[in-house]
Structure formats: structure tokens, C-alpha cells
Amino acid sequence: MSPCRAVARLPDGNVSTVDLSRIDELLVDPGSAVWLDIQDPAESDINVLRQEFGFHELSLEDATRREQRPKVDEYPGYYFIVLYAASAAERIGTHEIHCFWGKNYVVTLHDGPLAPVDTAIKRWSSANDPRERTVAHQVYALLDAVVDEYFPVLDAVAERIAEIEDDIFDARQQTLRELFEIRRQLLNARRTLAPSRDVINSLLRRDIPVFPPELVPYLADVYDHAIRVIDTLDLQHDLLSSAVETYLSVTSNKLNQTMRTLTALTIALMVPTLIAGVYGMNFRNMPELEWPVGYPFALTLMAFIAGALLLLFKRIGWL
Amino acid sequence: MSPCRAVARLPDGNVSTVDLSRIDELLVDPGSAVWLDIQDPAESDINVLRQEFGFHELSLEDATRREQRPKVDEYPGYYFIVLYAASAAERIGTHEIHCFWGKNYVVTLHDGPLAPVDTAIKRWSSANDPRERTVAHQVYALLDAVVDEYFPVLDAVAERIAEIEDDIFDARQQTLRELFEIRRQLLNARRTLAPSRDVINSLLRRDIPVFPPELVPYLADVYDHAIRVIDTLDLQHDLLSSAVETYLSVTSNKLNQTMRTLTALTIALMVPTLIAGVYGMNFRNMPELEWPVGYPFALTLMAFIAGALLLLFKRIGWL
Amino acid sequence: MSPCRAVARLPDGNVSTVDLSRIDELLVDPGSAVWLDIQDPAESDINVLRQEFGFHELSLEDATRREQRPKVDEYPGYYFIVLYAASAAERIGTHEIHCFWGKNYVVTLHDGPLAPVDTAIKRWSSANDPRERTVAHQVYALLDAVVDEYFPVLDAVAERIAEIEDDIFDARQQTLRELFEIRRQLLNARRTLAPSRDVINSLLRRDIPVFPPELVPYLADVYDHAIRVIDTLDLQHDLLSSAVETYLSVTSNKLNQTMRTLTALTIALMVPTLIAGVYGMNFRNMPELEWPVGYPFALTLMAFIAGALLLLFKRIGWL
Amino acid sequence: MSPCRAVARLPDGNVSTVDLSRIDELLVDPGSAVWLDIQDPAESDINVLRQEFGFHELSLEDATRREQRPKVDEYPGYYFIVLYAASAAERIGTHEIHCFWGKNYVVTLHDGPLAPVDTAIKRWSSANDPRERTVAHQVYALLDAVVDEYFPVLDAVAERIAEIEDDIFDARQQTLRELFEIRRQLLNARRTLAPSRDVINSLLRRDIPVFPPELVPYLADVYDHAIRVIDTLDLQHDLLSSAVETYLSVTSNKLNQTMRTLTALTIALMVPTLIAGVYGMNFRNMPELEWPVGYPFALTLMAFIAGALLLLFKRIGWL
Amino acid sequence: MSPCRAVARLPDGNVSTVDLSRIDELLVDPGSAVWLDIQDPAESDINVLRQEFGFHELSLEDATRREQRPKVDEYPGYYFIVLYAASAAERIGTHEIHCFWGKNYVVTLHDGPLAPVDTAIKRWSSANDPRERTVAHQVYALLDAVVDEYFPVLDAVAERIAEIEDDIFDARQQTLRELFEIRRQLLNARRTLAPSRDVINSLLRRDIPVFPPELVPYLADVYDHAIRVIDTLDLQHDLLSSAVETYLSVTSNKLNQTMRTLTALTIALMVPTLIAGVYGMNFRNMPELEWPVGYPFALTLMAFIAGALLLLFKRIGWL
Questions:
Q1: Bridge partners for E102 per DSSP
Q2: N- to C-terminal Cα separation, chain B
Q3: Which of D224, D246, D266, D316 to probe by mutation at the C interface, max C CB count within 10 Å?
């Protein structure tokens, strides 16, 4: 069986880690609230869920699949929720969370350890007020922790974009690679985070309210944060688009400058070559050739003309 | 007559292949459920449909045409559904399926053999529970098989995009060709698959429910998958757009590099040519020409300057 | 007076061409149905319409103007409809049709002969079933013929796009001209055809149904075709956008190739020129000059180096 | 006081220019209809409006400001309307019109003389039927004249776009300047004309109808024209976008051609230079140098090779 | 404690600055209206708000955070409003304002001094009519001052865009930098100002009206201004996009011109070099070499051909 944890508010209001074997007796007690967190769920875990919780076959099947779309499915007696957490170590990662939310339990499934789930469990189980240890508070704690975790990701992206924007006028290939990479990650992240926002909205807008009234402003706040996240992702996407267009203009501009430099240097070399060619001609009657100072004169002429050209090109901005 | 197959749930609950001639008696028996699958429908097949099933002339006409838009048309006593399956061998293919769905029958028409239809018939006819052998289950099985077949296509596309993304910084013409080709296929696929998704939604949202309540979550699941497919197609389209823009920037960048290399090499060759030109001048008084080591000195000078220039250009990144 | 035609279903159910002078007596007979088709309407025709049919001054004014927006205007006792037919000879043409639709008549006005109108009149007048000779069938026949005529246009465009796509990697200026031209025509066509689709929808969605129920599925079919046309136009627009972006990338790529070829050839010529320059120097002491085989040796050296360079450039793909 | 004009329908049905001092007595007479047109309104004019008409302070403040957004504000007893006329002399101009519309008066304010206002006053005051001299007809005449004036602007823009499209394959800088300029003007025009259209719609769609029923089809016609104007502006915007993209491709293509020409000419010159270099070498033993026809032979060789190269480059399309 | 100011309308209708310690007695008096403005709120200020006003913990938490999304949160007894002011010194700045709006008080919090808040307080406190000193007028004064402050920002942006547009055909790198910078600022500004507009709309559209009827037209006016601001931002964004595309075309065009100049100059130098090479050949029999005027003839020939070429290139526009 996979690493899993069961935390329960016992009927006396206290919260403590409980043994998995005690879950069935807690589930039938309406005064308790259980949070079962399963990491890297295996077939055996799904079987436990099937037997102990009696979940619909379809939701269990969804729970074993990956890359689900964020959604809220209503089943008799419980909700099945798919949403995504985000992280930003080297790249923007999105992490799928499956959540079963019933009358007196929340079951969360995910691959690998996941900071927001840990945070949520800790916060809920250490709430000061025992009234804040209901199942709705569990869900609120989870959503809040998940959405809060989006912000450091946005900050990380913003930092990388700022770096790219600083480098963009150098038009290095490396900058382009980073632009391309972060854009791809952003597109990928937006695809999972945008519907995650809709999940919160759909929980808030149910015909039959699923949250107690005192929690609604808190969830509205979480929803508001989620909107802000998507807004920022959109802004960052626009900033990157603008950066790509600018990059193209910068390279185009650099090419112009390179070509002008080429013109200048080539011409500054071609002129003395022509002079050398002239004095290399074999005419019988070329007075300069007889001059004692003909050779230094020619060299000086070459140097002078080349220097004058380079100076001229410098003036008109070609070098 | 075209290759066709009739599978029926007999009133006793068993499913077996039946002879076409028995269809009329099964159709009048409300306890039976027939699945008639016609491959490469010919005029004669349409005539059979007209006589045996009494379909509206308009729907029969639609059934003979190709490149219909995915849709659900309601006719008295039956629905006429057009939707598209997808496949990804060498290119993304879309395959039109026409489906008549009546009280106790489903008729499917398509060109060539089509995996999802085979899968659906097999799954429906081998359902464990006899209650899962209703006509609504036929339609569910068909929709589910069709949408499930989209995912390998997405994976194939994702793989090709990943290949393109790996190659993009080489800026080869071949990569551009592939980009162009996959984009065209994606645009084509999206045009038929997006309305196929709406077909499922329109079946789910009918004022008069067309599916028994226990099937609704299953169809919602299929619909959810279809949304995810379209989301992914959109994402892939965005990724390709980003790849095309990047490709353009990469070629622009490469051109810059090429031009700089040209500058460097040309200049590194022009300088020794100038030196040779100088010592080719015919001035009477050129001391170097008389030096015993004049020639090796000149050669060394040329080699040294050319080498120094190449080194310099290497330093400043022009080579 | 302009060339015009009056076809009428007489009260006995037969359809025949009638003389214009008989129209007024047919109009007052509710059992008859008249189709008056006026080509290149002149002021005198408008006067006839004003006197015989008593149309509102505003609709008559609209009927004389060109480049109207597709629309359905409801007037007491009749509808005034503007829609567009399409044709694709050398370019995509759109042809304005004005249509007055009253209780027992349809009046169509257009410039030049128009195939869909001819088709519609023929189809309606030769309907097998006398019940299919109502005025609503006239309008259906017209809409159906107009929309059917869109498809060959789409096919013609698709063919030209396919040609362009085949040629795009040659990056010829001619291809760009064609791209630009077809894009312009497509934008123009979309502007008139898209609202033509809305005309059909608005006739179908009236609060007071304007078509008999048995005609509704037929009109829904026409509407469906119109949607498909616009979908395809959108797809073609996207394909052309993708083609333009690809064209830009191809030219950028070609420029790169051209520049590399230039580098290669120039350098392959500069090196022997340098060698010639070296042996053209006037140093007293140049042993090679005295060699009997000095000259062939120099030529061979030049040829060998140039050949080696060309081979090298071929290897690294610069030629 | 600014140049202003007061035209009134007197209670006897006749329309004539009236003295400003008589306005207050006409305003209290429900049988009269006054049109007060103020050009370049000054502070004193606003004071008159405040005292005579008793307009709300906010609408008076709006009337003194410029660059208002097109809108309809409802105040007790009158509407305050902002809309824009258009003109196309050298550039597309938009001209703000402020309009107060009360029970028996219309007040229009604008800067400089404005053709549509003149047209509207003239048309209204010279209506054949005295019943067409109501205040609603005033407003209709104004809206109609304003929208009618958009069409010559569209035509002027279309003409300039056509000129640009003709010139685009020459890729001259001037064409780009014009493209840029017309695009900016179009964007500016669209920003004011699009909401002007909504003004008409909002007047038509009021819960309490503001126009007599017989005027509604006329206003619907004006609204229809306004929609067509915006449609055409959108089309023109798309055509210009397509033109800009094409321009970029054309310049890219031209650069390619220029580079190839450069390659061709440079190489055609480098080869004879190499030959001259070869025969300028100082080898003792060069048989050609001794030939009597050596010199003409060398010249012929140079000319022949250069000619052959130019011919070759012509063939492969590099020249 | 941070710099803060309390201005109150005392029950006698007069407005004066009050001491913070008197706030609690004013708050309980329904006849008074307090405006408490806190700059750079510190923890201690939040504590005062918690104790004196009893705000919900969530809104207090929001008030301490920065980069909130513009919004209106309804709490029992008060609204919590987040909106943004704008300023344009060197760059477009956006400044967050938090506002608590209760029955007889408004509390504003912001970082640093903020002109619109000062303006609003001054305007409200110096209103002529005592009836304009209600809390609703406070909020109106604040919104109006905030939105009015947007216009100078738009003007500043418009000025910078005009400068960029003037410079764009010079295609300097600096222009591109400014384009990039202003675009980024515009994208950032739009993200905060667009939802600020929605804040005003949401206050206007509440089911239970929050403003007295006589204030509604004034707020509609503010809302109208806010729409205009966003419209203008959108227009400016479009103008900048058009400028970027044009910039790219201009650089592309310039590159073409540069390349043609290079061709011209290079070729004009290569031809005399070839001539010099020809007369540098060592053929025994070269008649020109013996001519007395051979050398000046050769020089003249070189100058003539070079001049002719330059003239030709000037003609065909390559120089």
C-alpha cells in the first residue's frame, strides 16, 4: 500500500492522526471529520476506497487516470474534484490532485509529496477554533493552499521574464531558447490552471450552497486570488509575445548593422588594393614609379585613404 | 450490397449476430435492440434503410453525402447524428460516421473499416449486465469509443510537436515543412472534432432527456474527455504558432551569424591579398624587395595578420 | 424594361410562365403563387413594383441600391430579404440578390443572369407534388440553390490553396501574389456570406414561424450547409495565414542559404586570387619563380585549394 | 456669441429661421419644433442653454468637453446624445456632435461647420409632408445624414487601400508610410464610429419607444447602414493587416533577389580578376606570356568566362 | 503610527479635520460623516481599524496585502473596495487604493501620498451644498478623482506614441527600446485599470442601489469616462502593435537598401581593380603598355567606368 495518512477530528473536537483501520468507524460517526491523504495511489488503495467509501465506479476510474481536466463531478453523497497545484523549481510544474469530498471526510490523491496538501492538512488540524474543523473547512484549506502556491510560481516566471527582457536587446540565441521554453511552459500551465479556477467558481455558484455562509467570503477570496493568477498568466503571455516580436526586430536591426560594418570594412580594404593594383601595372611610362619616395608615398596614400574612409564610415554610423 | 453487420440483443437478453433478413421482425419487437453497421454504404443500402426503417428523405440524403458537419438532427422517432472519428497513422485522419438512433436500433454508416465502431459493438455486445444492452448503451459505447480514439491521435501529434521543438534551433527547411504540414492537419482536425464535442453536449442537454439517468454521469465523462481533446488541440495549435515564430527568429539569428562569418573570412583573406598587391607594385625603390628574406618575410606577415584577424574574430564571436 | 420573367402556379396547381400583364389578377387570387424575377432592374421596374405590389418606399429604395448588408426586413404583408450568391470563375464573385416575399408571390431582383435563381425557379416549377408549389417552397428553393452554389466556390478556393501550398517552399514572388489575392477575395467573400447565413437563421427563428412545419427540417439543412460554408471559409483563412507565415520563414531560410553560397563561392575565388597575388610579388629572391614547373605548380595549387574548399563547403552544406 | 442658427416649425406647420430671442416663446408652445444649431459653442452659449432650456449641469459640462465617448444619456425631459460625423479630405477626420433632444426642440453643438448637420436641417425643414416636421424627424434626419456621410469616407479609404495594394509588390518605403498612416487613421476612426453605431441601436431599443412607429423602419435602415460601415471598417482593417504581412514578405523576397544579383555580379567580376592575377605572376617559365596573341587571348578568355557566367546566372534566375 | 488624516462632517453640517481620538464618538453619530485617510498603513493602523470599526478579519488581511485585484467585496455593514489610481511621471505607474465604505465613514489606505485622494477629500469637504457632504458623495468624489487622473496618463502615453511614430521610419534601436518599454507599461496598466472600471460598474448595478438617485447620473458619467480610458488604452495598444510591425518592415526595407548600396560600391571598385590587374599582366606583347599616354589612359578608363557605374546605380536607385 502507498504512503498514506489519515487525520481525523474526533467527535470530541480534537484532531489527531488515526490508524487506517479505524476509518470505517469514524466514517459512520457524523460528529467526526476524516482527511485521508494517499500519495502515489496503487490499485490496492483504490480497492479500499471502493469498499470503505463506496465511491461510484466512474469516479474511481477517473481517480486512477492522470491528466484529467479540472472539474467538479457531483455523485450521490459526495463530490469528485480534480484540480492542479503548481510548483516552480527549474520549470513550471503542475501537479494533479484528486479529491473526494463527502459528508464527513475528504480523500486526496496525488503523485509524490505535495506541499499544498501538507499545508492544508496542517492548517486545518491546528485551527484554533474547533468550529473550523469541519469538512467544508478542509476543502477551503485545500483550495486556499493550492491557490496560494500559485503565487510563488508567478513570481518565478516574472523573474525569468524580467531576465529575458533585460537580455533581449543582445539578441543572443540563448535568450530565444529561454523565451521559447518559458512560453511553452506558460501555455501548458495556463491550460490546467485556468479550469482550476473554474472549479472554485463552480463550487461557489452551486444552486444548493455547499459551503456554510461564514466560509463563503473566504472562498470568494480564494476565487479572487485564482482570477488574479490567470490574469497574471495572461499578462505574462502577452509580455512574452511582445518580447518575441521585439527579439525579431532586434535581430533584423543587428543584421542591418552587421551588413553596414561589412560594407565599411570591405570598401576600406578594397581601395588600397586598387591602389596597389594601379602601381603594379606594367606601363613603361609611370612617373611615380621612378620617384625615390614613390613607395612610401603609395603606402601613405593607401593608409590615408583607408583611414579617411573608416573615419567617414564611423561618422555616418556604419561602424 | 456493402459489407455490413447486424448485431442484436434478442428479447431474451442475449446478444448475437443476426441475419439481415431477420431485422424487420426484430425492429417491431420493443424488447430487442439492433445495431446495424454498414461499411461503404451503397445505393442499395440506402434503399434498405428507406424501406425497413422509413427514415426521412432528408436524413437519407445526408447519409449519402460526405463532409457533413457534426450535428444532431431530430426526426420523428429517431435522431440522425453525424460525428467524426480520428486516427493518426502517417497523418491525422478524420473519419465521418453517420448514425441513426431510434427506439430499438442504432444504424451506423462509414467508409472503410473503423476501429471505434468495432470496439463499441464489441463492448456493448459483451456487457456483463444485460441491463447494459439497451440502445442508449449502444450510443454511449459508440461515443465513448470515438472520443477514446482521439487520445492516441493527440499523443501522436504531441510526439511530432516535441520532435519539431527539438529540431527548431537547427532551422532546417525540413523542420519548417513538418511544422507547416502538422499545422494544416491540426486546423483540419479541429474543424471536425470541435463540433463533434458539441454533438455530445447537445445530446446531454436536450430538454427531454435522451439518456437514462444512470448513464448521464458516463456521458458527462465522455463529454469531459471531448473538452479535454479540444483544449489539447488548442494548446498544440498555440505551441505550433510559438514554434513558427521561434523558427523565424532562429533563421534571422542564423543569418546574422552567417553574415558575421562572411565578414570575418572575407576580411581575413583581403588583408594578405592587399599585402601581396603592395609587394607586386613596380616602384623602383622598394627596399624590402631586395632583402634576401623579403619573400619569406612577406609570407610570414600575411600568415600572421590573417591568423591574428581570425583569432580576433573568434574572440568577438564572429566565427 | 429589363429582362424579366414571371412564373406562376395557377389556381389549378399547374405552373407556367405568365404574361406580366396578368400578374395583378394572379396577385389577388390566394390560390396562386407568382415568382417574378427581374434582371438588371431599371427605374421602370421599381415603378411597377410600387404600383402593383405597393411595397414600402424604404424597401424599394433598398432594392435600387447595391452593396446592401444581408438582412431580413419585415414590412406589413411581406419580407424584404437581401442575400448573396457566390461564383468562382477566375475570382470569387459575390452577387447580390434582393427578394420580396409576400403572401402569394416572390419577387427577385439581381444584376446579370444568376444561376441559383434559375435553378430555384426551375426546381420549384417542376416539383412533382403540387403541394410543393407554395410560396414558402419558392423561398426554400431559392435559399437552397444559393447555398448549394457556395460549395463549388469553396472547392475552387481549396484547389487554389492546395496549389499555393504545393508551391510555397519555392518562395516565388508569384506565389505570394496569389496568396495575397486569394486572401483578399476570401476576406471579401466572408463579409457577405457570413451575414447571408444569419439571414437563414433569422428566418428560421422568427417568433411567428414563417415556414410550414414540414419545410423546417429542409431549411435547417440549408442553414447547416451555410454554417459549414462559413466554417470552411474560416478554415481556409487560417490555412492562408499559416501559408503566409510559412512563406516568410521560407524566404528567410532561402536568404540564409543564398548567403552561405555566396560565402562559399567568394572565398573559393579569393584564395587562388591571393596565390596569384603572392606569385605576382616582385621580390628578388623567390625560388618558386625560377622552378621550371613553377607556373604549372601554382596553377595546380590554385585549382587544388579551390576544389578542396568547394568540397569542404559542400560537406558542411554551404553549397 | 458663436455663429448659431435657429430654425423652427411654427405652430401653423411652416418652417422658417427664427430669431434667437423668440426661442423661449416657441419652447413653451407644444405645437412648435425648434432646431438650434450652435457652431463653436462658447461659454455664453452654454449659459443660454442653462437658462433657456434648464439642462442638467452634468450634461452642460459634457457639452463643453471634447473627445466624449458616443453615448445616449437620459435626463428628465430630454436626451443628451454624443455622436461622431466623419469626413475624408486628406485624412479621415471624425467630428464630435453633441445633441440635446427634448419634447419640442433639438440643440446641436459642434466645432466648425459640419455638412451632415446642414444637410439634416435642410432636409427636415423642406419636408413635403408637414407631419414630417416633428422633433423625432429632426433626430432621424440628423442620424441619417451623419451615417450617410460615412460612406464617402469608406470609399476614400477603399481607394487608398486599392492604391496601396497595387503598389505593394514594389515594396517602396513610401507605400509602407501610407500603410502605416491609413492604418492609424482607421484605428482612430473605428474607435469613435463603432460606439456611434451603438448610439442608434440604444435609441431604437429603449424600453419606452422614443420614435413614432412609422419612423422605426427608417431608423432600422440607418442602423443597418451603420452596421455595414463598421463591417467595412473591419474588412478594411483586415485587408491592411494582410497588406502589411505581404509587404514584409515582399521585402524579404527582394532581399533574396538582391543578394543573388550581388553574388552573380561579384563572381562574374572575380573570375577575370583571378585570370589577370594569374598572368601577372612572375614565373620565369610561363609560355602564354611569350605568345604573340597571348594578351588578346587572355582578354578574350576573361570576357568569355564572364559572359558565360552572366548567361548561366541569367538562366538559373540569379540576375 | 503612519501619517493619517481624519476629516469629518460634523452633525452641524460643517466639515473640519478632527482628532483621531474623536473618531469613535463621530462613528456612532448617524448625522456625521468621517473620512479617514491612512498613508502607508502599518500594523498599528490595522489594529485601530479592527477595534474602532470592527472590520471582518478577511478584509483587514486584504488591506495589508498589495497587488490585489480591483474588486468590491460586500461585508455586513460596509463595502471593501480595491481600485487603482494611475500616474505618469517617467513611466506609467499604478497605485493601489483600499477603501472601506460604511454607513457614515470612508476609510482609504494607500502607499505614499496620492493626488486623487487629496483632491477627493478637498472637493468633498469644500462642497457648497451641505447636502453634498454625505458618505455617498465621498465615494463619488474618490472615484471621480481617480478616473480623472487617468486622462493625463493617457495623454502622456499618446505623446510618447506620437514621438515613436515620428521616429519609426528611422528604425533606430532606441525607438525599438521605447516601443518595447511603453508596450510593457501599457499591458501592465491595462491589467489593473480595466477591472477598476468594472468596480464602478458593479457599484452602479447593485440590486440594492448604493447611491442616492441624484448621484447616479454623476456616477454614470464617471463610468463613462472609465470606459473611454479603457477604449483609449486598447487603441494605444493597437497603435503600438501596428508600430512594431511597421518597424520590422522598415528594418527589412533598410537592409535591402544597405545591400544594394554594398553591391553598387563593391562593383564600382571591383571593375577598376580588374583593369589594374589586366595592365599588370606580364604578356610580352601588350601594345598599351608601350603607349606614352598608356598610364593616364588606364587611370582615366578606371575613373570613367567607375563614375559611369556609380551614375548608373544612382539612376536605378541602388545608391
A1: E78
A2: 71
A3: D246
What is the distance in angstroms between the Cα of D291 and the nearest Cα belonging to chain E? 8
What is the H or E stretch that residue D8 is in?
Answer: strand D4-9
Strands in E4-9's sheet, in edge-to-edge order, are: E15-17, E4-9, E33-39, E105-110, E92-102, E78-88, E71-75
The residue count of chain C comes to: 319
Which cell numbers hold the place of E219? 456616477
- Global pTM reads 0.88
Which residues in chain A are contacts of B235 at CB distance < 8 A? 187-188, 191
| Integer-rounded Cα radius of gyration of chain D | 35
C311: pLDDT strictly greater than 70: yes
Q: How many CB atoms sit inside 10 A of residue A67's CB?
A: 11
Which run of H or of E encompasses D12?
none
Beta-bridged to residue B33, according to DSSP, are B9
Pairing assessment for the beta strands A4-9 and A33-39 based on DSSP bridges:
antiparallel
3-state secondary structure C138-196: HHHHHHHHHHHCHHHHHHHHHHHHHHHHHHHHHCCHHHHHHHHHHHHHHHHHHHHHHHH
Name the H helices within chain C.
23-27, 43-48, 57-64, 115-125, 135-148, 150-167, 173-204, 216-279, 287-290, 294-315
CB count in 10 Å sphere of residue C291: 15
ipTM of this predicted complex?
0.84
Q: Is the pLDDT of residue A183 over 80?
A: yes
Strand partners, D184: none
Quick check: B117 and B149 in contact, CB under 8 A?
no
- Touching subunits for chain B (3+ Cβ pairs under 8 A): A, C
Taking Cα atoms as reference points, which of B144, E236, B27 lies closest to residue D191? E236
Percent of chain B with pLDDT over 70: 99
Contact A280, B281 (CB under 8 A): yes
Give the residue from B159, B154, B147 showing the smallest Cα distance to B186.
Answer: B154
Of D104, B248, D76, D49, give the one whose Cα is nearest residue E213.
Answer: D76
Instruction: Indicate the burial class of B304 (C-beta count within 10 angstroms; 0-12, 13-18, 19 or more).
Output: exposed
Cβ atoms within 10 A of the Cβ of D128, count? 7
Instruction: Tell me if B44 sits within 8 A of B64, measured CB to CB.
Output: no
Within 8 A of D227 by CB-CB distance, chain C residues are 69
User: Where is E82: in which H helix or E strand?
Assistant: strand E78-88
pLDDT in tens, A144-159: 999 999 999 999 999 9
Cβ-in-10-Å burial (0-12, 13-18, 19+) of E307 comes to exposed
Q: How far is CA C94 from the centre of its chain?
A: 8
pLDDT tens per residue across span E197-211? 999 999 988 877 888
Place of cell 625560388: C287
Query: Is 80 exceeded by the pLDDT of residue C3?
Result: no
What's the confidence (pLDDT) of residue E178? 93
* Contact criterion met (CB < 8 Å) for B249 and A244: yes
Asked whether B9 and B33 are in contact (CB, 8 A), the reply is yes
Instruction: List Cβ neighbours of E287 (8 Å cut-off, separation of 6 or more).
Output: none
> What mean pLDDT comes out for the span A53-60?
90
Q: Residue holding cell 583607408?
A: A306
Left, alpha or beta for D6 (phi > 0: left; psi -120 to 50: alpha)?
beta
**Residues near D175 by beta carbon (within 8 Å), at least 6 away in sequence:** D164, D167, D168, D247
For D46-102, what is each residue's pLDDT tens digit? 998 998 898 999 999 999 988 889 999 989 889 999 999 999 887 888 999 999 999
Q: Cell 498544440, residue? A: B236
C272:D273 CB<8 A: no
Q: pLDDT, tens digit, for every residue of E229-284?
A: 999 999 999 999 999 999 999 988 888 888 888 778 888 999 999 999 999 998 88
